[in-house]
Amino acid sequence: MSLITNHFYHKSNMKIAIEAQRIFRPNKHGMDFVALETIRELQKIDHENEYFIFVSPGPDHCLNESDNMHIVELRCPSYPLWEQVALPRAVARVRPDLLHCTSNTAPVKCPVPLVLTLHDIIFLEKRQSSSRSLYQEMGWHYRRLVVPRILSECRKIITVSNFECNRIREALNLPKDRLTAVYNGYSPHFRQMPPAPEIVHKYVPSDDYLFFLGNTDPKKNAARTLKAYALYLKASQTKRPLLIADLKEEYIDQLLQQEGITGIKEHLYYPGYIGNKDLATLYNAAFAFLYPSLRESFGIPILEAMACGTPVVTGNVSAMPEVAGKGAILVDPQEPQKIADALLRLENDATLYQQQVNYSLERVKLFSWKHTAEEYVKIYHCIHQ
């Protein structure tokens, strides 16, 4: 890893610091992948500027240094201390032209011009219920504390959809020129692939199943999704099993008990966290992908499934219609029967199914991490002028 002092006097067009604290952790989630994939593209397309990527140590060294990109590891016992103490001290030593914080929060006292990616303001909205994990709950409170204190310091705030851009502008009363929307992309790792039953069967014994990517965050709508699946099983002739990623058995049992549908458990498979390496194979093998969230600022899994040619059933609210497009299967996520009906239509109408496959493969061509990175470079230069 680079020592900060080694590159102190290196001449370049701009010196750009990027916070990517979590990208080396093994179990990465949405914001981690956005940061990682965009940084990888910046490394490919931008050879003029010099980058310092600030990370926390971890076992998954998924990014390599290059001539103009240096990785700086900062050790700290907790995320708030890492971001509020260790990061600004390290940035002050590097003296970059700007710091881009990629995951909703930033140092309250930043020594250089600040760019913030604010993925959403869900933490300011009324919650349907508290988060099931302590990590999520602490993160929610931390964002509520920090974000209002840093907004006035940000030279530019990036968010990930026009829906979220409008929500943030209205809720926080920000000047129009302070905020901009830059769409996420998806990794080319997600594409149509030949069958790989040896990988699929590590997670589910069937080669024909439904796939739901959830977690314990209430917005992922796991309870209603399971209720919808129970309704689907009652009406389906095929009764495809449901593969559930990122939910533990204990939590699933609670939801099944709560909804009075414990009888469907024999149709469920729940291996826990599924890494990106196998995820593309599982999208490819799935009959359909369920993503009926209550609220999303973007929804990268929609694009990942579409890129694999898998029909998607997603919500008709927030940013999901913006990402999936008008031709997608959009349903009211509050209505389990409508989610189930969408699955049954796909199952019983081969023409509709093929239309959705074709539509998905065309739709994803509108999105790429290269485009995201190009937009970031434009923003960096605007701030530096």
Summarize the model shown.
With 385 residues, the protein is α/β, with parallel strands linked by helices.
**Major sheet: arrangement of strands:** 3-2-1-4-5-6-7
- The strand count comes to 13
CATH architecture of the largest domain: 3-Layer(aba) Sandwich
Structural class: alpha/beta
Q: Number of helical runs?
A: 13
Largest sheet: 7 strands, parallel
CATH superfamily of the largest domain: Glycogen Phosphorylase B
Report the β-strand fraction as a percent range.
5-15%
Give the ordered list of helices and strands.
Answer: EHEEHEEHEHEHEHEHEHEHEHEHHH
Helix content bin: 40-55%
Please give the radius of gyration in angstroms: 21 Å
Shape, principal axes of CA atoms: globular
* Uncertain residue segments: 2-12
Using the coordinates shown, work out and report the CATH topology of the largest domain: Rossmann fold
Calculate the mean pLDDT score and round it. Answer: 93
CATH class descriptor name of the largest domain:
Alpha Beta
